[in-house]
Amino acid sequence: MIKRYTFGSPFVTDSVVLPLATEKNPALPRGQGHFFLFNDTEAFCWNYEMDKGTRVYGLGENLHGINKRGHIYQSFCSDDPNHTEDKKSLYAAHNFILIVPDAQIQAPGRNPFGVFFDYPGRITFDTGFSKENEITVTCEKPDIDVYVITPENSDSPELSICSQLRKLTGSSYIPPQWGFGYMQSRWGYKNAQDIRAVVKGYRDSDIPLEAVFMDIDYMDDYMDFTVDSSKFPDFPDFVKEMQQDDIHLVPIIDAGVKIKEGYSVYEEGLEKSHFCTDKSQNSQAPFTAAVWPGMCHFPDFLNPEARRWFGLKYKSLLDAGIDGFWNDMNEPAIFYSKAGLKKSLQTIQLLKDKNMGVGDYFTFRDCTNLSNKDEDYKNIMHKVPVEKAGAYGEQNLTQGDTLVNHYDVHNLYGYNMTRSASEAITELTQKPVLLFSRASCIGAHRYGGIWTGDNQSIWSHLKLNVAQMVGLNMCGFLYSGADTGGFGFNASRELLMRWVQFSIFTPLFRNHAIEGCRFQELYNFENTRQFQTIIETRYRLLPYITKTFMDAAKNDGMYFKPLAFIFRNDQRACKVEDQLMVGDDVMIAPVITENSQGRYVYLPEDMTMVYFGGENRTRASTKDAFTLTPLAQGDHWIEIPEENAVFFIRKNRSITVAELPSGKINTRTVSDSTDTFTLQG
Ligand code: MIG
Question: What's the pLDDT at 209?
């Protein structure tokens, strides 16, 4: 059951699609905490007292483990590539938590429940950091819709809560079938030649590849919807050439629109007033700040007309044959604003001839940090229909619109960029299009997938990736994954190998790396055949992976689940943080530490271990390449050599896997019809 509690006059975020009447009485039933307002600031607050054994789930992409207890998290979409443990926020705002009270304590009102905070601005979740046994959720404005979700069945209450959240917020985006293939990306592929070389590298080493991503360098001077003709002399022709080789090209689109005379997107946006405006200029001029292309304006994605206008711009690339996009920098990321730069140059001017001691030096040092500042966000204004704005409207305009300050609705920007693309693409073409975004909030899962942004090639980020997948699935982002191998830093062969072994199970499976780092394409590493074996396992598992994904998408379920949601009465299973269920039949236990030949795996029940790979593997005999070993419930040390993919099938369950055609598989795509057979657990 879902109950809606409305406080003040909330902004209509469109995160929710199910109309629900609001509760007359704002008091929560016993065991669901209480709401209040801070007297001094009027800030909204929800507070809940936990027992020692209570577990907290949710929060989508955010940091730390599967159990989110014990930290402070914040939803404020942030372009911050340093995903260290002290951070509160990554690129997304997934304001859902699920609380599972300690099952050992029997008392009335102690059932699992979920809370979705439908709020567009900065909101903080203290899940037992300030006080070990208290959760406090606070947001800055008193205007908010809160949805409290209780289970509809007692067999799997957690899954029931998550599925109701999806009913409330709409069903998840489904990618084209090829989106389940293996994809390669790198910031630094400069031209058609570079991309051809990548495809050749994969074909020569006989590793399946479905798509190559085009990062910002394909554009003419970083201008959205342009292609640099010196790098791609005949772009539609090149797209065709790639298609003939079964390769999809996926260009990036950034949020900022370059200010440049003669650039049609800039000129049209200006003429039609489709850019966000500048508060310090009484909203009479567009807001200006620098990103990749230098000074930019920002499309007003919260304004329905601007949203449609920008979305229809994807047409030029669709017309060139493109069928996939990734939306970046849409928190929105800001390098510096004019005002910010001016202030900092003034500060430097004052310090110029000074003998700087520590105070002045720190002032000097800090004043050059100009990115993603609240001051800038507070200077951006959106034009929003009055009926959506609630108490957020600041100044009514003609034609039923009002001005809303970006800072207050910051988390809706990336979401509405993806919505802009998705709605227009649906209008423009019948073909299924791949679409995912960096910034998001709940609601965006209806329009596209997300990737988890700029992680790094370090072991702790592989571990984080495992936990993130659970939070993301709970919030509806089924089509998601991290940059496999890590984006920043240089990946060791071993880390990449272990990461690929995990990512063969993530619906979005993309290897991506930063400009200038070690080349991370699989064929650039020694013993390429071992990588080939693992990627092949992905392709062999596709019948199970796509079926599990489609079941989750169609039934508002989860693709990745924590063991705790399935083996609810097993206290050990409830605490497992590094093993996941993939659907109902398969459990995975990725290796996430270095120099380990294997790992301990906890089996909550008897399972069959499946090894794929090794010396026996030949294409002609797929069946022989799988080794099945029944194992009893309990702890096991499992050897997981580099060239093997290992997973577990639950007892009496079976999964369908694909035969691969014998011989070279380099033209194989996910859509090839292949024979399948069954692995029996
Ligand atoms: O400021 O387009 O997260 O995937 O390669 C960096 C260049 C901008 C950030 C994205 C990353 C992408 C990079 N972008």
Answer: 95
Helix axes 493-503, 528-554, angle to 10 degrees: 30
Tell whether ligand 1 has an atom less than 6 A from the beta carbon of residue 438: yes
Helix (H) or strand (E) holding 341: helix 338-351
Q: Is residue 371 within 6 Å of ligand 1 at its C-beta?
A: no
Q: Which two tokens stand for residue 42?
A: 């009027």
User: Count of alpha carbons within 13 Å of 12, Cβ hemisphere only?
Assistant: 12
Under a CB-based contact definition with an 8 Å cutoff, are residues 458 and 84 in contact? Answer: no
pLDDT > 70? residue 536: yes
338 CA from centroid of ligand 1 (Å): 22
369 CA → ligand 1 middle, Å:
19
129 CB less than 6 Å from ligand 1?
A: no
The region of weakest confidence among 34-43, 109-118, 526-535, 574-583 is 34-43
The candidate with the shortest Cα–Cα distance to 342, out of 279, 294, 289, is: 289
Helix (H) or strand (E) holding 202: helix 192-204
Nearest CA to ligand 1 atom 5: 187
CA 252 to ligand 1: nearest atom: 2
Show the tokens assigned to 186.
């790198």
Q: What is the share, in percent, of the chain residues with pLDDT greater than 90?
A: 89
The 3-state DSSP class for residue 166 equals helix
**What number of H helices and E strands is found in the chain?**
17, 39
Q: Which of 415, 428, 332 is nearest to 379 (CA)?
A: 332
The reported pLDDT for the residue numbered 670 is 56
Q: Look at residue 666 in the predicted model and tell me its pLDDT.
A: 46
β-bridge pairing 144-149 and 2-7: antiparallel
Would you say how long the chain is, in residues?
681
Token pair of 257 as six digits: 């629109």
Atom of ligand 1 nearest to the CA of 291: 1
Q: How far apart are CA 546 and CA 177, in angstroms?
A: 8
Q: How far is the CA of 26 from the centre of ligand 1 (A)?
A: 44
pLDDT of 618: 57
The verdict on the CB of residue 453 being under 6 Å from ligand 1 is yes
Establish whether residue 215 lines the binding site of ligand 1, counting it when its CB lies within 6 angstroms of any ligand atom. Answer: yes
**E-assigned strand segments in 331-379:** 336-337
Say yes or no to pLDDT of 485 above 60. Answer: yes
DSSP state of 23: P
Q: For a ligand 1 pocket test, name from 221, 296, 328, 452 the mutation site with the most ligand atoms within 8 angstroms of its C-beta.
A: 328
Q: Whole-angstrom Cα distance, residue 504 to residue 491? A: 18
Half-sphere exposure of 276 (CA within 13 A, CB side): 31
Question: Which residue type occupies 331?
Answer: E
Say how far apart CA 440 and CA 92 lie, in whole Å: 5
CA distance 392 to 384: 10
- Rounded CA gap, 530 and 501, in Å? 11
